[in-house]
Records
---
Amino acid sequence: MSISENIEKYKEELPENVKLVAISKTKPNEDLMEAYEAGQRIFGENKIQEMTDKWEELPKDIEWHMVGHVQSNKVKYMAPYVSLIHAVHKMKLLKEINKRAEENERTIDCLLQIKIAEEDSKYGTTAKNARMILESEEYQKMENVRIIGLMGMATFTDDEAQVKSEFQFLQKTFKDFQKDFPELKELSMGMSGDYQIAVECGSTMVRIGSSIFGARNYN
Ligand SMILES: *Cc1c(COP(=O)(O)O)cnc(C)c1O
């Protein structure tokens, strides 16, 4: 199927309250434009430089989401335009985002990434530390960042029961947090291989790359 057909398929299939983030990392602008012409407006990237190049060249009504691991020293490059940073895992990064957002007279929305997978290669903080960040006076004084939800990546495995239990843990954490922080609205979980399980577990944002744009070639 073509990129535009894939976008149509997801628009039909996903429940109305679930946003589709089209993960376009490594893909050329023509591919993003095909998705754009099919009505897609939210794109996700995992490298700040690549996202910034695409932002400069593509239509300005695209919402850019940074879904990858963020190094503090690169926040300044995306601060003028980024809509949502999915993978905030520590206070130091949040402080830098707040500072750069203020310089740009913006408020930047963020999600806290919780580590739910077994693999060591996946980033994220604990639910306990995430709660400490939300409760901290330091965060509450920040005027230019807003934590609007949580994000997680399940273990890369065929074991659906394991993926489901990891997503259920994140869903439970999210619901717990919402009791004290009702401003948390978004739960970013689910990728090409596991988005159906994620949606069953209450995801409000799925991040889908290869099953829209095809396999990535990193060479
Ligand atoms: C690449 C990436 C995705 C999309 O992965 P696919 O399996 O291609 O759908 C989702 N989330 C993050 C954080 C990614 O880096």
---
Amino acid sequence: MGNLMTSLPLVAKMATDDYVGFTFFVGCMAMMAASAFFFLSMNNFDRKWKTSILVSGLITFIAAVHYWYMRDYWATIGESPTFFRYVDWVLTVPLMCVEFYLILKVAGAKRSLMWRLIFLSVVMLVTGYFGEAVYRDQAWFWGLISGIAYFIIVYEIWFGSAKKLAVEAGGAVLSAHKTLCWFVLVGWAIYPIGYMAGTPGWYEGIFTGLNMDVIYNIGDAINKIGFGLVVYNLAVIATSKVEA
Ligand SMILES: *C/C=C(C)/C=C/C=C(C)/C=C/C1=C(C)CCCC1(C)C
């Protein structure tokens, strides 16, 4: 036992062209730093915004823990950590739906809006997992179902009842809502590209040269940290208005 301990290196070596390993590593650090930032700054705000910043921190913290495992999984096994990836998403994406609800609460958003968005996001992710991990031969089919759920979310926040509430709230809430809508339309669209780069289907060849995990890792950094910063910015603006 003692021999084994001394002969096995404790840290796996990382090749200079291992972009997957590199983005897992940097992603892990970025998520940890963002979590510290959100948690340590949340007490600067009053109760209403504190909860929103707390949720931003929870999103990056849950991701940091999953990135820790995914980085390790990749370093030791050398395969896509699909399971950890989807567990991370199925916890953090519904929390992003909660953020929409929390922001729009000032305009009287109802819980039903939050649950509708959460339900759609879970459908989007579970069907995505089926295509990526369980029924890979029909990846295009499951990706399509997932994409439909994604578009319903996009519709709901851009044009549906969420949009109406944001307009009613106006001011900083409306502009934060708009920015978050862009994150969902453009930032979240990064994921289907990763999916098509990493699963078999008619679309094979379109995204050759792109690595699924690198794309997902870039998407996560933009969406989780960026999304949280938009909410943080809203809290700063709203709080300084009250004080002025
Ligand atoms: C923090 C993690 C986030 C914001 C993850 C978002 C993931 C998606 C928007 C995934 C969407 C997918 C499709 C629209 C179709 C193909 C399958 C998915 C699950 C990759």
---
Amino acid sequence: MTDGEAWLEKNDRSGKRSRWIVIGVVAAAIIIVIAIVVGVVVSKKNSSSSSSSKSTSAGVVKQTDPNDPSTFVKDSRLKQSFYGIAYTPEGAQLPDCGANLEDVITDIQLLSQLTTRIRLYGADCNQSALVLEAIKQTKVNMQVFLGNYPSATDGGAAYERQRDILKSAVQSYGTDHIAGITVGNEFILNYLNANGGGSSDPDSAVGNQGAEALMVNVTDTRNMLTDLGVSLKVGNADAGSYFNKELLGQVDYGMANVHPWFANVSVDVAAGWTWDFFEEQDVALAQGLSNNPQMSIAETGWPTASSDAGNESNGPSIASEANLQTFLNTFVCQANTNGTEYFFFEFFDEPWKDKQFGGVEGWWGLFYSNRTLKNIEIPDCSSSSSSSAAVVTTTAAST
Ligand SMILES: *[C@@H]1O[C@H](CO)[C@@H](O)[C@H](O)[C@H]1NC(C)=O
Ligand SMILES: *[C@@H]1O[C@H](CO)[C@@H](O)[C@H](O)[C@H]1NC(C)=O
Ligand SMILES: *[C@@H]1O[C@H](CO)[C@@H](O)[C@H](O)[C@H]1NC(C)=O
Ligand SMILES: *[C@@H]1O[C@H](CO)[C@@H](O)[C@H](O)[C@H]1NC(C)=O
Ligand SMILES: *[C@@H]1O[C@H](CO)[C@@H](O)[C@H](O)[C@H]1NC(C)=O
Ligand SMILES: *[C@@H]1O[C@H](CO)[C@@H](O)[C@H](O)[C@H]1NC(C)=O
């Protein structure tokens, strides 16, 4: 908090918008610090591990042939309106892996009615193969950005473990449904928090050091793919104002977390704020680089609940289904129309996050954790034919 406030003061003259940016960054930083601490505690706990991998999704999606996942019955409330959606399968956290094919098939059946693109964060608990197998069995039109979530402090163990899982998934399933491999999630943000002495400048000396560390893993992933004889994009994901230029200059794509909630932005202006932030912080940065990395919003959304009273409001707005609806109504189809690439955060509520972090962390889903759609109406627009949809709308409005 102290570091954040100092930084905020130092930058105050640049006005209101950058104050929002700073606030968002500070909030994100606090969350990540919590994540690191909890991660360490959890990994120290020597657990009895590999708990039950029982399906929790039985009966959620009907199939006309119970043995053929491609015969699922569509839900008319779901519309394929999202550019992409952020997804973590249930039971994909070490050491308590419980992810299983039946649940992931159900999730893919639901997700495919909302989008043609998903992104994963990591590869542990066999999630890469489970998702690719589910796409195969459901026969849906779906591309997945696989993920490798490395740690900067484990000598490369998490990176290498996940690289090997990714390698075997690519070998088993080929690349038809893989859009890319994302190496690193908020790596520079974490690196600066751990080593930066309060700096939040991703292009500082410490930021460059972090970028070089991650680049070793990016290069290793590229080599792994070359050895397999396949061509796939390799990118990375970070908080929206934490892209290091040298790193972004060497990857194929960058995914940026942009969260109006954590920036204490009112829901009424959240969609516009998100777009402005992304354009100014991320798209502009990429345009200045000669490799022209493809930029997308890695996460944006709105929480519907908080587990404690203190986090029910971000100041101007509360966590609620009504406010998620407002954000959906003002962001999704508009962003499609103007070609903004984003992954809506997120598929369903995640009880493991609520348990570990509390507050709003576990409550960002379009669905509850039991895979029932929340009390929301999914916007009806098509991300793939947005320009013709826009023409139709204009014509209709002018007659
Ligand atoms: C991972 O999932 C795939 C697809 O369901 C399965 O074929 C494979 O056996 C699983 N691997 C492990 C180690 O569980
Ligand atoms: C991955 O990066 C870590 C540092 O973050 C490094 O210790 C490790 O050697 C790297 N491993 C590979 C295979 O690139
Ligand atoms: C693009 O979409 C966003 C998100 O809804 C919106 O806020 C922004 O104003 C749009 N930009 C343009 C140029 O239409
Ligand atoms: C808000 O939630 C965070 C976790 O996201 C928690 O650490 C914090 O104590 C909560 N704050 C209040 C005021 O309840
Ligand atoms: C955002 O608003 C919450 C709730 O009012 C407050 O506790 C928090 O300090 C604010 N965060 C920042 C960075 O101003
Ligand atoms: C799913 O969870 C929601 C929220 O807790 C609850 O209202 C709903 O009744 C549950 N649905 C089923 C089918 O269990």
---
Amino acid sequence: MTTHTHPQAAAAGSAPAAHEASTAPAASGAISAARAEGLPVVQAQGGLSAAWTERYSSALMNTFGTPKRVFVRGEGAQLWDADGRRYLDLFAGIAVNALGHAHPLIVNAVTAQLTTLGHVGNFFGTAPQIALAERLLALAALPGSGPAAEQGPAGGPDLGSGRVYFANSGTEANEAAFKLTRLTGRTKVIATEGGFHGRTMGALALTGKPAIREAFEPLPAGVEFVPFGDAAALENAVDDQTAAVFLEPIQGERGVLPAPPGYLKAAREITARHGALLVLDEVQTGIGRTGDWFAFQHAGIRPDVVTLAKGLGGGLPIGACLAFGRAAELFTPGSHGSTFAGNPVACAAGLAVLHAIERDGLIERAGEVGDLLRQGIEELDHPAVAGVRGEGLLLAIVLRRAAAAEVADAALDAGFIVNAVNPESIRLAPPLILTTDQAREFLGALPKLLDHALDEAGRS
Ligand SMILES: *Cc1c(COP(=O)(O)O)cnc(C)c1O
């Protein structure tokens, strides 16, 4: 892409860049209508980042630290900040914006739904939530495309028997799954070290990161942790008292650590043998990101429960807990609920995401562009890089030194959004619409960014 605005150029007061940020052509009608009513419509005027950052820090709780940028507009895989600088978004709001920013299908679906019916509450049903539940169940029942999948799904229930519980986020989808496991009559739950399932008390109880748990103990009881990827440890831990095993196919927050080959299949076999539920947290891996609709399809297994969120709503808050077989019957009226869950606007966005993924072949694209990125990074043969982990468009560049933060900062300064998921790993989770040209643009800039991870000797 030759039009990429270098941030320094924009910072030096490049009028076109600032202007570009302030007016999204498709939005201008809605913006003037809102203005006419006196609603605050915040747009970039150029040079405003510092002011907004200061206001952020005085008004918002300090849960995320000081924001490195304040963004005002997005389009496709691009974002503009309050100073009018353009960025290529390789992180998609933590693997959320599957269709990028301001995708016409989502804008139209959400607008159509909101101008028709915005919310009724869960004493009533709406067409989008019913249609989305049906679509998700049908997609979960598809065979996968991976090598393991070709052998046919291993164990587990008939996915035709599924039911969906909608939530508003990943942590809520996991709360639902956790509560559901209590209704099996068993209370012992196995989760994995280094796993991440969310920040609410139940999901936190399943999360294998002591640093983010300890301040909030006591957490719901009954959870035991085993090392991730170790089938023998799982075999030892699961018994006839075990209600469920919670696993991520790829531990995203740990640094994009995939389960070793055969692990999910072993987990399926072990849980089935003991009558325990296999719950897969696909909040990060689901909805096309790894090059299949669900990562479990790649592994050729059938879980009892799958949780979803991030990529499902294309930026609107939505989560889902899919359960199959007997797990689908555990909740009964009164067992669980939420005021907003299954909101028709969020569900309409979800339907738009699924439609676009199918229409535009984005599952295949995730596999192809993911391979291009992986190979491109490996071929750089950069001395700071130890390797690449992950699947499809959920990747980590693993560094030889703990310099991920420096590389991510350098990337941001150069106009690329990536994530230092841990001190040694740079996570890439771009929109599924990322083009090969955009992937190459990033690969072209990468060597210089990675130089920030060289030690003093390597840099000189
Ligand atoms: C992000 C994430 C969650 C939590 O989702 P929220 O929407 O932030 O609550 C849970 N599990 C996994 C695997 C995640 O990546």
